[in-house]
User: Fold SDR family oxidoreductase from Marinobacter azerbaijanicus.
Amino acid sequence: MAQQIPVIIITGGAQGIGKGTAAHFLDKGWRVVIFDQDAEAIQACRQDFSNPGNLHLIEMDVSCESDVISAVAGALQWGGRLDSVVNNAGLADPDTGPIEMLELAQWQRRIDINLTGAFLMAKHTVSHLRQSQGSIVNMASTRALQSEPDSEAYAASKGGLLALTHALAISLGPDVRVNSISPGWIDVRAWQAHAPANPEPLSASDHEQHPSGRVGTPGDVAAMVAYLVSPEARFVTGQNFVIDGGMTRRMIYED
Assistant:
């Protein structure tokens, strides 16, 4: 009996870290389903990836339960199975201004997409992941662990995602493993829908402030995703992995 090709869903996969992760799994021979709300970014993906037979793109909003139900059904109809889910969709801009000026709608939108979207994806994919003994990877952020001013909504949504990760790991084990990744500074400019042809190079100081000696790339995060969904990580669940070049371990004092 021929081995079936594994299928992975990546939310927010049409650009940034999600797109880099999609490229990584396509190169590994997986079948990749991208969920994304940005129609232009989805169209760019159709042109950028050279193996369309293994790629399926669905325009949807992860914060809308009916969209999630419909998109998951479409992914299963196309792929015939489901092995992994990467909850990567999120509003990336953390700065929402002073807390006394933060509108409830702004707060709620970040919670809805960054946190509730991951809950809805888990809710509507877990029965299929149980069948494949699959896994979920939630894309959190180092901002769940440390903060800059005026980032309360983003930090709360990502901190909630860490808690959701270990709660799901306990509830869904041993059938489904659940882990999270907290990226630091990842240079995603080349993976955006409207990427500049010749982006300004990052400065030497941008790289040197990282103990690893450089700013991160989507490939750094994708490699961790690939490990976490692989059989080699079958004893790993409920964990958060910081991919930040060592920045959250570095003491920084103002001069």
Notes: Residues 104-132 form the longest helix (29 residues). Residues 7-246 form a domain with the Rossmann fold fold (CATH 3.40.50.720).
